[in-house]
Amino acid sequence: MSSRRARPARQAGLDSPEGSRYTGAVSEPERIAVAVLAALFIGVSKAGFGGGLGMLTTPLCVLAFGPRQAIGILLPLLCLGDAFSLYHYWGKWRKENLWYLLPGVVIGVLVGVQLIGRFDKRQLNIAIGTLAVLFVLFQLVKTTLLRLEGDLRPNFKVGAAFGIATGITSTFAHGAGPVVSMFLIPQNLPKILFVGTNVLIFTWVNWIKMPFFCLGQDVLPWGWLPKVSLINAQTLKISAWLAPLVPVGVWIGVQLNRRFSEKWFSRLIHVFLLLAGLQLIFDFDIAGWLGGGR
Is residue 260 part of a domain? Predict the structure, then answer.
């Protein structure tokens, strides 16, 4: 039985999470369904709908593909989504925020890549799950926290700290949204400038990560790099297959923005994100609970 379950993953060359009893124990159709949803979610979130929907993509993909392959598959899709957002919000940003954050982001990405190279898959699952849970908790308390902070005048000293945190969390889980929000929201930017500045920052962050995700000890013999490149020929094939779904997701997001309230949809997404994060942390035997057994 277990050998039959493992066969589709090997045939597709997909990452079967080690050090985990239950996480990632999914069939090939389920993996494809999760990948399709992730690509659509990226597009919808880049259209500005869904709150934490973009944050949900990484935990979902990790459950299906394992942490390293998931973040490698997603980065090219995020860059593609950024291109659509950048076109829509071109020039509608506060560029100085990027310069304040950028030096710290580079340091944070370097630290994050080094940590990924040292963590095993189970530890990466826990780290990504923890970030997902913290994101949900941040959504619950952010209004109070940001009210206490008062107005923030951005500068290089503050930007360096936020930039390092942005680089590390984005490298681990493509999940630096709360960090950047804590930097931008106290500035009381108009909504269009807030969204546009977010787009500009994450476009740079994602492209800064790209060369480090393409390098591993299989390419360069540097001990601090991951043993295998996070982005490789296999992950690029999957990303290319999913890429056409990103603009479809953008179109869906635009339609949802016009027709539906985001409030309750975002709350539902936060529930799913919390559950996915807890699954990554505690590795529950969901199949056993549902009576599937092993």
Answer: yes
